[in-house]
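Model: You mentioned two targets. I'll fold them one after the other.
Researcher: Yes, keep them separate.
Model: Target one:
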Amino acid sequence: MSRIGRLPIPVPDGVEVTLEGTHILVKGPRGQLERELAPELNVVREDGVLRVERPTDDKRSRELHGLTRTLVANMVTGVTTGFRKGLEITGVGYRAQKVGEKLQLNLGYSHPIEIDPPSGIAFEVETPTRLAVTGIDKELVGHMAAKVRSMRKPEPYKGKGVRYAGEVVRRKAGKAGKIGGKK
């Protein structure tokens, strides 16, 4: 039995869950999320908690058990508290700022980069070198944070670029100078 899959998902007050076959709709104070689930599994509501059950013990059902439970739990968490992914910018002259809803990045290129947020995603710029991607859909928040990071990934020699908050970049030694002078 999947250790993750058998855990119950508590449904807090103010969250409404609608189950229609393989379709699940979760409404909460921050918005609503919906998803098609795998037809091999059943989501059952009982006493204010949700449970993901697998009718058979075949390989595909076992593979999807923990995944489905985590996806539903992330939907419930998203509509109650939301998700946030922090980013840090390192480098001389590298900075971020908000222009309306868009995020404008100066990352050493000849032009500034503007990123338009999709619906449900917001950018927060705390300082010019610290920003965050927030939203209710964990998958979309992670995707947008990865997209911002891909504009200038941290390089291993000077460490310049955009990195996740708390990410450690392994540094490399530069080219060693000649030893002993010319001969």
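Model: Target two:
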Amino acid sequence: MDIAFKCPSCHQELEVEIGAAGQQIACPACSKPMTIPQPDANNLKVGIAAHTSAAAKEEKHFSVPVTENPVQPLIKKALPSLEAAAKDGTRRLRIKTIRHIDCKEVGHDNFDTIVTDFLSKVGEESIVSITTISYSYVEMGTQKLLVDFGVLIVYKG
């Protein structure tokens, strides 16, 4: 059997074997000295193996922050896909940038095909504007500054 009691300083709930009653110990939570109380009807506890582990004895102190302001999400959700946005019925302005370098495969330039596929997927009625862009980047293999192009598509989706 065990004796269940609380530290008089920090109120951490503790349990020890009945044979330790009357001993002077340091609280494992706050390190303040205290005496283990004598067993009585209020503090005797019949031990179960699952309840006598160190993890089961640890008392958790959680607090929920309270505020009068509206709660702000900490994790932003990703924008829905085009298909999900079309089913939802709400259409907001969105932007898609397609870079020429991202459309090159071994020996093939698929820029026109990828732009055409995206535009047909969005639909002509949803397109607000298409703007060409020019940008520069450092090629990792040669460490040269290269200039490339792409398109910036503004659409409702």
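Researcher: Noted. Anything on target two?
Model: The chain has a mean pLDDT of 81.
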